[in-house]
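Write out this protein's structure.
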Amino acid sequence: MTLSLVIWGVVIYIALSLFVAYLSRRGPSSSMSEYFLGGRKMGGVVSALSYSATTYSAFMMVGLAGLTYRGGVGALGFEIVYFAGVSLVAIFGPRFWAVGRKYGFVTPYEMLGNRYGNRGVALAAGLVSLVFLIPYSAVQLAGVGYLLSGMTDGAIPFGVGIIVATVLAIVFAYIAGIRSVMWTDSLQAMVMITAAVLVTALVVSKLGGFSAMFGTIAETRPEMLSVPGSGFFSFTTFLGLTLPWAFFSISNPQVSQRLFMPASLGAMRQMLLIFLCFGLIYTLVSVIWGFAVLVAFPGLERPDLATSVLLSSDLVPPVLGVIVMIGILAAAVSTIDSILLTLSSIFARDIYGTLSSDPADTKLLLIGKLVIPVISVLALVFAWMEFSMIAILSVAASVGLVLMVPATIGAFFWRRGTADGALASIIGGVIFVVTMYLTGNSLFGLNVGVLGLPVATVLFVGISLATKPDLSYADEFMQIAANPKAQPPLT
């Protein structure tokens, strides 16, 4: 594949995306709700495609394919657990939507602060999300860097790739806020899924079909088709990777914030159904992709290069390879700009707004816009360090964010939960997670991915039982959440 073909592909993608982003502008976004939530009026199809592009980032075609290449079929089990966890949206989505519309919440942590009657909960959760989501943003940047570098044999350096992704994410975030992100996401999602399916079918056929490909694996690398097997996926490793991932849809704020955005409950249902279809196809494609590279190119030193090696090989026509490359680049940028908008809204609303004596909406919007490039640069610096495998680093970020799950579940289903319990689970959980990582990440033979959520849950329940709840907040909140159909339409 020639360097010029790759460059032209990137240029065309940028031009089309900027055009779509510009068309998404509908007057000035003068409020936090308009800029970060699209005025809570997003349709089901656009919401679904954007949700898909944001969720299925560079992690999938770069990270999951690489994890399959290294660990075999366990990677499919790992991702299927996440996929099953998306069913939580059916339970929590209408509740997020109802309370968000009633109280005007912009961030999930603002919601928690209101439910527990303590802004300190929102502040603590916001700070934790900044700590753990910046590395996750760096994962997406690194995915672009590996992809462009690998497909051009280093002619486009890793550093140039992550800079390109950072600049694009900032530009899309600034053009029209979440509207430009969601409309460019929709374009990107269609490119992602169409090109990936075509290339997978082509590559498998060139390897002799599914039976021949998996027959080769069964003969030469049988451990790749068993779980836990003798390779990468021991049972504790598998559990540690999957447990935080199962709660991704309600623990990661760039995803749960989107539950505030649909125009109606019908739009939310449509979003979920389309996303599930998209996700199942993309998951199977990514895993098959990893197995195909294992057969065609055994012995790669760096699994995260599996995708770029395949796309630049003779198995894939150059033009089709560039289209897939653009789809992966688009997925990564989609996730980055979504995280940028979410973190900037969290910083403005939950951190600055809590500490400031003048939390006017217009001022908070300005603060949110100002911190977007700051967060971007931090993620860029983190990506430049080139830490371990993309899939593993993604899960490490989810380990920190899963600490918010007990307080989130308690907010909707346990009126006895208290602000002290929520704070203890978040702050105590972070101390435990960081200590585990600094001391070898093993306690009683279990890693922090297994232990983090149970520790946070015990802290939340134990401290809540030992302290007095503010039921005036709890009862009203839970009543509204339980009756989403009672919410009037927006005018």
